[in-house]
Amino acid sequence: MPPATSPSAARLPTPLRGVVPPLCTPLTPTGDVDTRSLRALVEHQLVAGVHGLFAVGSTGETAHLSDARRRTTIRTVAEAVAGRVPVLAGVVDTSTARVLDQARAAADAGADALVATAPFYATTHPLETADHFRRVRDGVDLPLFAYDIPASVHTKLAARTVLTLAADGTLAGLKDSSGDLGALRRLLVELRAQGSLDTFSVLTGSELTVDGALLAGAHGVVPGLGNVDPAGYLRVYEAATAGRWDDAAEEQDRLAALFGVIEAGTAAGTGAGTGTGAAPGMSTGASALGAFKAALHLLGLIDCPATAAPQTPLNEEAVRSVHTALQRAGLL
């Protein structure tokens, strides 16, 4: 039996287009989900005009959240959205059985669509990966997006796998965070040739090349930086869809400069000022997520900039750097 759906659920457009930020998950100092701040962040995004929201993705610290905190986050987002835009929920886990558990929980919490990676820890053959997605789609009656993020799961989704699952209707779309714009361009050419782009959504997760991805035929973007500046990504999208490519490129350049905040933690205190490598005791991921949350805190959108354990928090120097970047971008 398919899971019950909320009467306020949003119907997923076919294909899904536009700006779909992957929400940060605000936390309390003790690591619980700060539902008040999360609702405020959702409302900020909706007022800006986003086309959808993605809960408990990489930017939402899905790898660091307990199952209970994932469920709380998805339910809070779904309730706050109240059907105004589709809510995509990450169901990232190591195996098909575990992803199915996450998918059922996300459906019960009010998600409108699911986002899953290939299995990881134990690597899979492309045919096994395809079977994984088919089992997830058969097990939970919600649209399913493949999440291509090889830097995290150590498996690049094969283009042939994506093409096959797009053609047979297993997948509703792809979130491409591979960072390989050339491979994405080739995939879009092949999807267009097989007639899938009218129904299969391709969303780039690469904040720095949104204009290029849209020019190549992508339907939209899932930008982590969109937590901080959703209006900027909406301007890129609107200019691109209107064919004003110079305007799109100009706004993309502004966002590229702002994206430097992800290096605030890794550059702070190193004397390098370049952000290359990691500062002592801090991963590059902690620096990026800490910077996004510091920015949201400075903008008054969340109560606490804490990141989930075991990530190292930003120091005062790094927070000052984020403040400066927001001022330069015209956000403060």
Describe this structure in words.
The chain has 332 residues and is α/β, with parallel strands linked by helices. 44% of the residues lie in helices and 8% in strands. The protein has helices at residues 35-48, 67-81, 96-108, 126-139, 150-153, 159-167, 181-193, 210-216, 230-241, 245-258, 264-267, 284-298, 316-328; strands at residues 18-19, 53-55, 87-90, 113-116, 144-148, 173-176, 201-204, 220-221. An 8-stranded parallel β-sheet has the order 1-8-7-6-5-4-3-2. β3, α3 (96-108) and β4 form a beta-alpha-beta unit. α8 runs parallel beside α9 (230-241), α9 packs antiparallel against α10 (245-258) and α12 (284-298) packs across α13.
Brief rundown of the structure:
The chain is α/β, with parallel strands linked by helices and 332 residues long. The chain has a domain at 18-244: Aldolase class I (TIM Barrel), CATH 3.20.20. The protein has 13 helices and eight strands.
